[in-house]
Amino acid sequence: MNIGAANQSAGLKSPEVADKIVLYFVEHGVQILTAIVIMGVGLLIARWVGRVMHRWLRARAFDEPVSVLVVRITKLLLIVFVGIMALGQMGVQITPLIAGIGVAGVGASLAMQGVLGNLVAGLTIIFTKPFKIGEYIELLGVYGQVTEIELFSTTLLHTDNSHVVVPNRKIVGEILHNYGTVRQLDLSVGIAYGTDLTAALSTVASLLRQNGRVLKEPAPVIGVAALGESFITLSIKPWVNVDDFVLAQAEIYQAVVERFRDEHIEIPGPRQTVRLINQPS
């Protein structure tokens, strides 16, 4: 008897639920249709705003990954806003929904302070542009060429092809050394005191002009750096692109050694004078 009564009760409830659903659609059909139209128009507007913002960011010379990221965030915010409007049109109480989202947002922000800190710092980097993709930077004891700028982190590439991922909150507010897209080599070579300085400096300048990795502008800096005990130190400081930094250094050193040998310019090694005192005759 109890099983039969339960089945009969379930059979009664199912038509009641179906009737309520049908009645809701009948009573709110226009509102539902309006909400669907609002959502469709909102999606079209979000797509149009995304295209306009992408063109604007390109015109302001923002990097492509950064532009795409900003456009996606803007479109997502517009879609959420339109979605809330559509729910309100369908009869859903928006005020409790917004309040619930606000309470959830406060709780999430307390639980993810580090993540939100990286997010805010990432937006700061994107809009203030202290560095761009392809530039060489140094900060907090790490250095490398910028390969990615994301909302939460920035990735640097070392000359050994290893990557360093730096949280964005560690970048904002710190001392940043931005080399840009070119770097200056700091090379040195020793020559004997009896060498013709003018000829040696001219030889080095000729080698730099022949190297395709050395930039013409800014002009290389060449001169006497120090006077040692047994040799004169020449300073060689040409400018090269960031990608050519390591290769240019090796090529210039090799060219200097070979040309100095050909022109009989001595590169002396360290010397010491030893005096023996009170030796028997």
Record keyword descriptors for this entry.
5-stranded antiparallel beta sheet; Alpha-Beta Plaits; Helix Hairpins; 281 residues; alpha+beta; 3 domains; single chain
Care to describe what's here?
With 281 residues, this protein is an alpha+beta fold. The protein folds into 3 domains: 110 residues, Helix Hairpins (Orthogonal Bundle); 50 residues, SH3 type barrels (Roll), CATH 2.30.30.60; 81 residues, Alpha-Beta Plaits (2-Layer Sandwich). The chain has 7 helices and 10 strands. It is elongated, with a radius of gyration of 35 Å. It starts with a helix and ends in a 19-residue tail after the last helix.
Write a brief caption for the model:
This protein is of the alpha+beta class and 281 residues long. The chain contains 7 helices and 10 strands.
Query: What order do the strands of the largest sheet run in, or round the barrel if closed?
Result: 4-3-2-1-5
* CATH architecture descriptor text of the largest domain: Orthogonal Bundle
Determine the number of helices (DSSP H or I, runs of at least 4 residues). Answer: 7
How much of the sequence lies in strands comes to 15-25%
Total tally of structural domains: 3
* Topology order in helix (H) and strand (E) letters: HHHHHEEEEEEEHEEEH
Largest sheet at a glance?
5 strands, antiparallel
What does the radius of gyration come to? 35 Å
Extract low-pLDDT stretches: none
**CATH topology-level fold name of the largest domain:** Helix Hairpins
Helical residue percent band: 40-55%
Query: What would the principal axes of the Cα set say about the shape?
Result: elongated
CATH C-level class of the largest domain is Mainly Alpha
Question: How many angstroms does the end-to-end distance come to?
Answer: 134 Å
Structural class: alpha+beta
Mean pLDDT across the residues is 81
Query: Could you give the count of β-strands?
Result: 10
